[in-house]
Amino acid sequence: MENYQEILESGRLEQYALGELDPAARAEVEAQASRYPEVREELDALLAGLDVYAEAHAITPPAGMRERVLGRVLAEIGTAAPTAPAAAPAPEVPTMRVSASNPHVASPPPAAAPTARRSGWAIAASVALLLSLVGNALLYTNLQQTRSDLAVALSEQTRFASATQVMERRLSSTQEQLHVLRSPDEYKLVALAGTPAHPTARARVLFNKVAHRVYVDVAQLPPLPPGKQYQLWALDQGKPVDAGVLTAATTAGDGLQQMKDIGSAQAFAMTVEPTGGSAGPTLDTMTVIGNI
Amino acid sequence: MSDEPLISIPTAAEAALVRRLRARDETAMTEFYDRYSAALYGVIQRIVKAEDEAEDVLQEALVKIWHAIESYDPSKGRLFTWVVNISRNLAIDKIRSRQHRVSSRTQGLDDSLAAQRQAAPATFRPEHVGLQEITKQLVPEQRQVIDLLYFGGFTQSEAAEELNLPLGTVKTRARTALKVLAKLIR
Known about the structure:
A: 8 helices; B: 186 residues; Rna Polymerase Sigma Factor, Chain: A; Anti_sigma_zinc_sf (chain A); sigma factor antagonist activity (chain A); Anti-sigma-K/W_factor (chain A)
């Protein structure tokens, strides 16, 4: 625990002497002073030193002040003094009257005291309750603040996590595309040229015969009417096989899109189909076609 | 040290005065005034500066002492310490509320400090203790700190800010000064 040497060196005694401490801290210093004679002695010396300092600055008040100040002080304490005793006997007057007129009803006075005491307790309890309510309100406000801070932090974290996931997905997709593009041995490049109706249309398919993988990469395709999608077909022995529909991003040329696996094909073609694709190609909408 | 007795040192007369005040003897107030008013007025005047305000605070202090004498505990300190602290606190409250009215606290503090520096030599009236002796014992830097803390109503942190010194320096000066003062009556 503490020892008096620490207390002497803490600077608290000086603060006490200079009147800088709040009541709780003052009480603490006083308790220490009563526990340790050394602390008591030091504190007394500090206080006495300041007293000497104060006294050294004594100024005899100007003439006339003695009468004015003493007169007002005595008037104030003099009027205060009689009112206090006067107030005290006042309640006794009705008491005496009651007991005089009806000696049997002697219970009200004893009842009054407990009531007063009880109301005293009630006031104290109310004050305590009020303080507690105020304290609770403060704590509650703090708690709410902390909760909302936490909610903000959590949602930030969630946002960050999902952003990270998006980035990871994009990265792996990019790596995959890069792998496809950098593996000419595995992937056969099939150029799809525009049909006479769409001479500027161009796209290509990357086809892995062994793994049956199909990727599509658009260079240029005519804009689609609403409710339509491009659909890729693999032509195997002259028969069209659905290879899936192109997303809007792929159609716009944003990157490679993996299509349905195709076991065997000699050519690829794209037609315009209702959104979601068709079971068979609408041949008169064929936009691009290319042989392997 | 002066060979006149210090009123800050408790005597049998002081104990008797406390008993009479506790007994609600109003004539004891007159004796109290004659014994302590110069010391209390000196402290109050040094804090509030204005003479009429000092008179008001002295009056408030005497009334407060009269009403609070029951709570004075001799085991916690001397009567002089107690009554000076009451007066000092009332005086500090006064300048604080005045500074509130002016609304610029810094301005108020600067004023009070400047006024104090100028007023200091003029208002010194060494009547009981050799003030010159105190001046000899304390170096000017220590005096300045003690004056701010005791008569300026500054806390040590505020004094550090006011004097533009590290808090540690102010604390050291205050402590050394208090020790020097304490030694004067040991």
